[in-house]
Design a protein that fits this description.
elongated; 93 residues; mainly alpha
């Protein structure tokens, strides 16, 4: 890896982490999944001979996976909150 690549990657990571401050948890997981997928895809693509294509495919797969995981965690949180409300309602009767 060249020095430019390392500096660029570090700056990209820094910008992406600080840019997530106003996002929902699902949005943060989607972005994180996309970045992780792009990095992994670029690594695998570099080994296979086409880092750009690997990064594009990895980013798409990571973004989709991050979004689906975020939605799953949202539904878990909603179910938990509903269970707490139900328990509190029953204890008040």
């Amino acid at each position: 890896m060249t020095r430019f690549s390392i500096i660029f990657s570090a700056l990209l990571l820094l910008c992406s982490l600080t840019g997530c401050a106003g996002m929902t948890d699902t949005q943060q997981r989607t972005v994180t999944g996309g970045l992780g997928g792009a990095a992994g895809g670029a690594l695998i693509g570099a080994i296979a001979g086409n880092a750009g294509m690997g990064a594009a495919i990895g980013a798409a797969a990571g973004t989709a996976g991050g979004y689906l995981y975020g939605k799953h965690k949202e539904s878990e949180q909603k179910a938990y909150e509903q269970g707490r409300r139900d328990a509190q309602y029953q204890s008040n009767q």
